[in-house]
Amino acid sequence: MIHVVLCDDHAVLRRGICDTLAEAVDIRVTGEAGNYTELRELLRSAPCQVLLLDIDMPGRNGLEVLASVRESHPHIRVLMVSMYPEDQYALRCIKAGAEGYANKSGDPLALVEAVRTVASGRKYLTQEVAQMLAQSLAHPIDQAPHASLSEREMQTLQKIATGKRLTDIAQELMLSPKTVSVYRARVLEKLQLTNNAELTVYAIRNNLV
């Protein structure tokens, strides 16, 4: 039996994933968490071989949680799940130590396959992700400017590009507006842009939103 813990801040999506996994006779969801605090407490008692971890959560984002879990529970294999297209986050997740990346809007059977693959000790890579990984290894210097952004900077870029104000972003990420403003300044500098309009255009052209 594969013991799975699910961490996602959207209860409806959690329920959908749980229902999907429940149809597999060899998979059992042993716990659910809506944020890192709940997850940290849950992992103290719930058996877990595979952690399904959402990327976009309030407070500490998925990749930050991934780093913490890798350090505190190195035996747990982490499968990142997200609504974002693979070309936005899949490579970042794999390079950060995740065992795989699955899209929540994809084929439910693919998610079951992903859990089984990860639980067996293998990496779960779709053909698209495998191709992107091969290209990144073959051409490591041929990267878009946003590849240098940290996870917080990427979040700030994406949220600005969707029209959100700094105060709104700060509230969603549980940060101070001043801190978000610093992230915005770093993004502008790294991408060599000057204002939010240019950030939005950049994000759209690079399929980041």
Q: What number of domains?
A: 2
The unreliable regions are none
CATH top level label of the largest domain = Alpha Beta
SSE succession: EHEHEHEHEHHHHHH
Question: Percent range for helical residues?
Answer: 40-55%
Write a short abstract of this structure:
With 209 residues, this protein is of the alpha/beta class. Helices cover 52% and strands 13% of the residues. The relative contact order is 0.11.
Can you characterise this structure?
One of its GO terms (biological process) is regulation of DNA-templated transcription. The modification 4-aspartylphosphate is found at residue 54. GO terms for molecular function: DNA binding. By secondary structure, the chain is an alpha/beta fold. The protein folds into two domains: 2-138, 3-Layer(aba) Sandwich (Rossmann fold), CATH 3.40.50; 145-205, Winged helix-like DNA-binding domain superfamily/Winged helix DNA-binding domain (Arc Repressor Mutant, subunit A), CATH 1.10.10.10. Helices cover 52% and strands 13% of the residues. The chain has ten helices and five strands; from the N terminus they run βαβαβαβαβαααααα. It has helices spanning 11-22, 36-42, 62-72, 86-95, 108-119, 127-138, 151-161, 166-173, 177-191, 196-205, and strands spanning 2-7, 27-33, 50-54, 77-82, 100-103. Strands 2-1-3-4-5 form a five-stranded parallel sheet, sandwiched between helices. Strand 4 (77-82), helix 4 (86-95) and strand 5 (100-103) form a beta-alpha-beta unit. Helix 4 packs across helix 6, helix 7 (151-161) packs across helix 10 and helix 8 (166-173) crosses helix 9 (177-191). The chain starts with a strand and ends with a helix.
